[in-house]
Design brief:
The protein has four helices and no strands. The protein has one domain (2-61). By secondary structure, the protein is an all-alpha fold. It has helices at residues 2-5, 17-29, 32-44, 50-61. The model has no long low-confidence stretch (mean pLDDT 95).
C-alpha cells in the first residue's frame, strides 16, 4: 500500500480484480502521463545496490566471512 500512497503503483483489490484488472491495465497502457508518474516515483524509492546488500547480510547471518 505504501507504493500506492506514494503514487508509485496502482492497486486492484482482490475482490474487484475480475471486474477492474483488465480495464485498469488498458487504461494505464493508454495513459503515458500516468506511466511516467509511476516510473518516476518508483525510481525515487529504489535502493541502490540492493542485491549486494542482501547477499552480504545473508553471509553475515550464516557467519561466513569473505
Amino acid at each position: 500500500m505504501a507504493l500506492v500512497n506514494k503514487q508509485a503503483a496502482l492497486l486492484v483489490k482482490d475482490n474487484q480484480s475480475l471486474n477492474t484488472l483488465i480495464d485498469t491495465a488498458i487504461a494505464l497502457i493508454n495513459n503515458t502521463s500516468q506511466q511516467v508518474t509511476l516510473t518516476n516515483n518508483i525510481s525515487q524509492m529504489a535502493f541502490q545496490n540492493s542485491a549486494n546488500v542482501i547477499a552480504l547480510e545473508v553471509l553475515k547471518l550464516a557467519h561466513y566471512s569473505l
